[in-house]
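Extended Data, panel c. Modelled sequence:
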Amino acid sequence: MKRYRTRRPIGALLALTAAGGLLLTGCAGGGDADQGTKESAADSRGGSAPMPAPDRPRGEGEQRYDGGTATGEAGETEGSPEIAPDPDHLSTFALDVDTASYGYARRTLSEGRLPDPSTVRPEEFVNSFRQDYDRPDGDGFSVTVDGARTDEEDWSLVRVGLATRGAEQEGERPPAALTFVIDISGSMAEPGRLDLAKESLGTMTDRLRDDDSVALVTFSDEAETVLPMTRLGDRRGRVHDAIDSLEPADSTNLGAGVETGYDTAVEGRREGATNRVVLVSDALANTGDTDADAILERIADERREHGITLFGVGVGSDYGDALMERLADKGDGHTAYVSDTEDAHEVFSEQLPRHIELTARDAKAQVAFDPETVAEFRLVGYDNRRVADDDFRDDRVDGGEVGPGHTVTALYAVRVRPGADGHLATATVRWLDPRTRAPHEESGDVETGALADSVWGADRGLRVTATAAYFADALRAPYDGGGGALPGAPRLGELAERAGALADRTEDPDVGRLAEAVRQADRLT
């Protein structure tokens, strides 16, 4: 299978405005730059809404367009497919590295239950796995585009991969000012919730630098600042004592926790540092201000005024997935889910330290499919990350904030015109330098010749991506024992066999856990 990776200077990319396209979705941000004029990707669409059910491929001669209305305007009705006239073959979205949906689905399946389809976000399944994309030498992104044929005639999966420089390449990063907002409500007494959070926070404290700062806020029926913003240095013992003192209490006043957490973050805000709130909760608000919009507005205000972003860490078998995801989206952040010690180590010891440094702000992606070769296409997931096509180069429209060590994958189902040969698509990512706010772009192209192989004979990364996407598709759609809505979708039993064989071949424990989750889902259907 061929892989194409082309890097163009920004001047050449700007010439692609009419025909060119871009990529991805939003991560956690940080820093102190003014964001008062920013408009979130969700705002540019008219707001976030529950995920629409997936649609089956449209009939012959029809075009489906998932990146906004045919005129490039925002505010389409959630759940209704968009029909775009030829040659409108653009798909635009904000970058995203959330993984909570996949983690929560695994937890639910392990307990013998199928996840609610509304909690299944395919892009979070796909982005839960490491990829071997080429990485850039400095800040910004590399772009890799490849693909392979599915088992359905004329349909292929096209993968757009974005990567930042490796975390091991980091030099001197700015200091971090982290405000941990910890849910200590009664429900957090369940094993694997508060106990896991305390253990994880202790490990995280030991990994932070002397110049980093930590504050600790707790909430149950009320919220309390247990530890004001404290420079670590020789005060780590004080932080550990505060963490060790946490005990479960009563109700869940999430609104009070968020408000006090942001007040504490603002009070302890450090110029030149990455200022972030880390919310650890099952997100089951039942006391005080439980109105999501009011809580969300508070986060949006602080983001705009102070550049303080949110990292949401979900815990618990009963978990308010929708609220946590909306909070993170509104707070220019992202979410992860922790169900065991291994997850906790990955999130607090690996992911969170990587998010402290920022390599790109307001990153958006656009993919332009060639109407001469592409009859129809569909972006898999990213339902609440869509951006109007005309807003791709409008830097007032918010994108995603990304740090080192990240990869982001966008997967498309593409129907190629019979006998078509040549250019298939151009993918472009646009971002702002986190220090100077100067815009940058990178692009990658793919030709029809890259689709010669079967998905199941492609390289490891694409096979894992396809397996994760097909799995999410099966969980998300009403399932009757047949295939899902994506072209070439295998039955769950067959998918479980393919995932198991892939896990054996790669000896990758992450792929092994994916295979086990597919087997559990197959047993439950």
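The chain has a mean pLDDT of 81. This feature is highlighted in the accompanying rendering.
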